[in-house]
């Protein structure tokens, strides 16, 4: 069966033609094993492959760009996005007004998943991944000791751990972890400097030694310190 005929067999009357073409382009990406950074055929070629007009292709591409699946590079073409469909704020947390309550709730979610992630990372992480974690850990320590902002590097450190778990679903949860870290550091004014250095190092050491239980415990302790500090900030705020 030709690609065109196969696509024509895909029909979802509940979706607009543009939405259906978005689904078909995603199918093309999967079937052709196009990876992050790969260039897609141009509009003319896609229109021919999908048996639709160029305006419909443009509509579909625009929708996929908004979903971080594709990116358009002016003068170069359309490419599979670096974010690979992952949105920066998948849960709409930007619009939550009570950041203190949000910080605690996000931390609860992290308690559910991050110790387990660290445990898996201790088993699955490659030497290259551990080396990258070590570099990030050292950079965070240096920034903290110089009393400089370290949010970005903190996020990169936790992201590296999550990715090294090799869990495909976990990669899509990374924005939730990132949001929690950014909000925590913001509302606590980076108060947990010493504890951050110590607990990050304990997590890293356990992963380096491929100590699954140790990594789980170290990450749990790291989150305990975070929760205690957030509650302290909230209590102080209520008493002011």
UniProtKB/TrEMBL annotation:
Q: Which SMART domains match?
A: FCD, HTH_GNTR
- Note the PROSITE patterns from the entry: HTH_GNTR
**Record's keyword annotation contains Transmembrane:** no
Sequence ranges assigned to domain HTH gntR-type in this UniProt record: 15-83
* Tagged with keyword Transcription regulation: yes
Which InterPro entries does this one have?
GntR_C, TF_FadR/GntR_C, Tscrpt_reg_HTH_GntR, WH-like_DNA-bd_sf, WH_DNA-bd_sf
Give the record's keywords alphabetically.
DNA-binding, Transcription, Transcription regulation
Any one GO MF term held by the record is: DNA binding
Cross-referenced Pfam families, in alphabetical order? Answer: FCD, GntR
Q: What protein name applies here?
A: Transcriptional regulator
């Amino acid at each position: 069966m030709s690609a065109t005929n196969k696509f024509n067999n895909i029909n979802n009357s509940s979706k607009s033609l543009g939405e259906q073409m978005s689904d078909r382009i995603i199918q093309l990406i999967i079937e052709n094993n196009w990876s992050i950074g790969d260039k897609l055929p141009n509009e003319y070629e896609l229109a021919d492959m999908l048996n639709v007009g160029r305006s419909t292709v443009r509509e579909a591409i625009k929708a996929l760009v908004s979903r971080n699946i594709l990116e358009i590079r002016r003068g170069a073409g359309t490419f599979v996005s670096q974010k690979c469909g992952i949105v920066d704020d998948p849960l709409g947390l930007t619009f939550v007004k009570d950041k203190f309550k949000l910080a605690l709730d996000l931390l609860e979610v992290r308690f559910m998943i991050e110790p387990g992630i660290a445990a898996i990372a201790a088993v699955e992480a490659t030497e290259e991944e551990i080396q990258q974690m070590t570099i990030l850990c050292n950079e965070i320590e240096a920034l903290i000791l110089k009393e400089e902002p370290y949010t970005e590097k903190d996020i990169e450190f936790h992201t590296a751990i999550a990715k090294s778990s090799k869990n495909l679903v976990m990669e899509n949860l990374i924005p939730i972890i990132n949001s929690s870290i950014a909000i925590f550091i913001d509302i606590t004014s980076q108060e947990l400097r010493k504890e951050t250095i110590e607990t990050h190092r304990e997590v890293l050491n356990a992963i380096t030694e491929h100590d699954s239980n140790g990594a789980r415990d170290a990450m749990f302790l790291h989150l305990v310190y975070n929760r205690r500090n957030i509650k302290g900030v909230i209590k102080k705020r209520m008493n002011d």
